[in-house]
Specification:
This protein is an all-beta fold. Among the domains are: about 200 residues, Jelly Rolls (Sandwich), CATH 2.60.120.200; about 60 residues; about 55 residues, no CATH class. Helices cover about 0% and strands about 45% of the residues. The termini are far apart.
C-alpha cells in the first residue's frame, strides 16, 4: 500500500515588521492572522510586510498550473496537446526553484504516434510567471525571454536537421545557427531514432550548481546533451529563482504530446530468498536518504539500496534536499513464498512393485520428471534398478520458481544357488555344499558333511521378500 506523507519542517509563526518566512511546499505559515501557503509579499493594515518563500520538496509533486490546451489525465499524466492542428499547452510548477541548489527531475515524455507529426515538447526554466506559452513551430516556448530550454523537436524547420532532435536554447529563440543555440542539435539515441513511436521515453534533467553544468539523460543513455555555463548570471541576470515546466505546440501537422512523472514509490513483489534494488524518487548528491526499518537493506542511507526481506515488509523513505525540506513515502515489498514445495516420497521400492502416481506434491500444478524425462508415473521395472532421480518443479503466478529433487532406490529380489561337491564319502563326512546368495542378507558360506538336509532362508533388508530353499542332499559311497 502506498502512502504519501509530507513532513512539516517549519512551525507556523506570527511575525510583524519587515521579515521573511521560509517554508516547504505543502506547509503553511500564519501571517497577520491568516494561513498562507503561496510565495509572495503580504502587508497588514499597519504597513508591515512579510515575504513568504516556499521552497520545493526533493520530489516532484503535482503543484502545476495548466495553460492553453493542456489537460490533466489519470496516472499523473499531463497532456500538452491533443492530436489536432494549431494547439498549444504549457504546464508550470507553481513553486520556484533556486538554481544555487541542484535539481534532478525524472520525467517521461510521449511525443506522439505520427512520424509525420509536429512539433515537439520543451523543458523550460524561466523567472517570469506560470502563464506563459506559444504555438506552432515555437514548441510552446518561443519568445519566452529570459529562458533556458531543452527542446525535443519532431518537425524540421528552417535551421533544423532532417531528423528528430534535441537542443538547448536560450531566451525563446529556436534558431540553431545563432548564439542562442547553447548545445546541439543532436539526434535521439540510438542513431537519430525517430521518436514519434507511440511510446513513453525517460528524460532525466539534472543541474549541478557547483560545476554549473546541466545534463540530460535520455532512455538510459547518459549525457545525451549538456551545457556548462553560468546560467544564473548570463541568462537570468543574477536571479536564481525560476519556474520550471514543459510546453508543446502543433501547427499544420500535429501529434498528441504529453508527459508524466512518478511521485510515489510503488509496492512490489519478490520471490523468497531474492533481492531487489529500489530507486529513490529523486537522486542527487545533495540529497540525504533514510530507509526504515533498517531490516535486510544493503545500505539504508543511499539513494538506491538492495532489499532482501524474509517476509512481507513495509518500508519508509525520507528524502531531504538542500533546502532542508523532507518528503516521506512508504511502500510494501511482498515476499512470495508460494513456491515452497512439499513432496513426501518413499525412497525404496522393490523390483516388480506396482507403478506409483507421483501427482501429490504441493502446491499443485507443477511438472514431474523421472530420470530427466517428464512423467508423473514411476514404475520400478528392471530398467530402474538402483538409484532413480525424481524431481518436481513449480512456478507461481509471480514467476517464482522452485525445484525439489529426491532419489528412489529400486532393489532386486534375492537369489540363491547351491553347488554340491562330493569327493568320496564311504560313511565319512567329507562332502560340502557352497551357498552363494545374491540380493539377500546372507553371505556366501559352506556347509561340510556327506549328508545335508535343511532349509535356507534369504531375505533383503528392504523387505523385497524372502526366498526359501530346502536343501536335501544324499551322498552315496563310490
Amino acid at each position: 500500500m502506498k502512502k504519501l506523507l509530507i513532513l512539516l519542517l517549519f512551525l507556523p509563526v506570527i511575525l510583524v515588521g519587515q521579515t521573511t518566512i521560509t517554508i516547504c511546499d505543502g506547509d503553511s505559515a500564519l501571517i497577520y492572522g491568516n494561513w498562507q501557503n503561496s510565495a509572495g509579499t503580504y502587508t497588514n493594515s499597519n504597513g508591515n510586510t512579510t515575504t513568504l518563500v516556499v521552497n520545493p520538496l526533493p520530489v516532484i509533486t503535482p503543484n502545476f498550473i495548466l495553460n492553453g490546451d493542456a489537460t490533466i489525465q489519470p496516472g499523473n499524466v499531463f497532456q500538452l496537446t491533443p492530436a489536432l492542428g494549431n494547439q498549444s499547452g504549457s504546464v508550470w510548477n507553481n513553486i520556484q526553484i533556486n538554481l544555487n541548489n541542484p535539481f534532478h527531475f525524472n520525467i517521461d515524455l510521449f511525443l506522439g504516434c505520427n512520424n509525420g507529426g509536429a512539433d515537439g515538447i520543451a523543458f523550460v526554466l524561466q523567472p517570469i510567471s506560470t502563464s506563459l506559452g506559444s504555438s506552432g513551430g515555437g514548441l510552446g516556448y518561443a519568445g519566452i525571454n529570459p529562458s533556458f530550454a531543452v527542446e525535443f523537436d519532431t518537425w524540421q524547420n528552417s535551421s533544423d536537421p532532417s531528423y528528430d532532435h534535441i537542443a538547448i536554447q536560450k531566451n525563446g529563440i529556436l534558431n540553431h545557427n545563432g548564439g542562442s543555440n547553447l548545445a546541439g542539435p543532436v539526434g535521439f539515441p540510438p542513431a537519430n531514432y525517430q521518436i514519434e513511436d507511440c511510446q513513453w521515453h525517460s528524460a532525466v534533467f539534472m543541474w549541478d550548481p557547483t560545476t554549473q553544468t546541466f545534463t540530460l539523460d535520455f532512455d538510459g543513455y547518459q549525457n545525451v546533451i549538456s551545457y556548462t555555463g553560468n546560467i544564473v548570471n548570463n541568462i537570468f541576470g543574477g536571479n536564481p529563482m525560476v519556474y520550471w515546466g514543459l510546453t508543446a505546440a502543433t501547427g499544420g501537422a500535429n501529434n498528441i504530446q504529453k508527459f508524466r512523472f512518478n511521485y510515489e514509490l510503488n509496492d512490489t513483489t519478490i520471490c523468497q530468498n531474492d533481492s531487489i534494488q529500489i530507486n529513490s524518487l529523486a537522486i542527487a548528491n545533495s540529497y540525504t536518504y533514510l530507509w526504515t526499518p533498517n531490516d535486510n537493506i544493503s545500505d539504508n542511507t543511499v539513494a538506491s539500496p538492495y532489499f532482501s526481506p524474509d517476509t512481507t515488509t513495509t518500508y519508509t523513505l525520507a528524502i531531504t534536499n538542500s533546502y532542508g525540506c523532507t518528503y516521506i513515502d512508504s511502500f510494501v515489498i511482498n515476499v512470495d513464498t508460494s513456491a515452497n514445495i512439499y513432496f513426501p516420497l518413499t525412497d525404496e521400492f522393490c523390483l516388480g512393485s506396482p507403478p506409483i502416481n507421483l501427482n501429490y506434491a504441493s502446491p499443485s500444478g507443477g511438472q514431474y520428471q523421472v530420470n530427466g524425462l517428464f512423467s508423473s508415473i514411476f514404475n520400478p521395472t528392471i530398467n530402474n534398478l538402483g538409484t532413480n532421480t525424481i524431481s518436481y518443479s513449480y512456478t507461481s503466478i509471480n514467476n517464482c520458481s522452485n525445484t525439489l529433487t529426491q532419489n528412489i532406490e529400486v532393489f532386486d529380489s534375492p537369489i540363491s544357488n547351491a553347488v554340491i561337491t562330493n569327493v568320496s564319502c564311504q560313511g565319512l563326512s567329507d562332502g560340502q555344499i557352497n551357498i552363494n546368495p545374491t540380493g539377500g542378507s546372507n553371505k556366501p558360506h559352506t556347509h561340510p558333511g556327506c549328508v545335508f538336509s535343511g532349509v535356507l532362508y534369504l531375505s533383503t533388508p528392504n523387505d523385497c521378500g524372502n526366498i526359501k530353499k530346502k536343501l536335501i542332499v544324499g551322498l552315496f559311497p563310490t
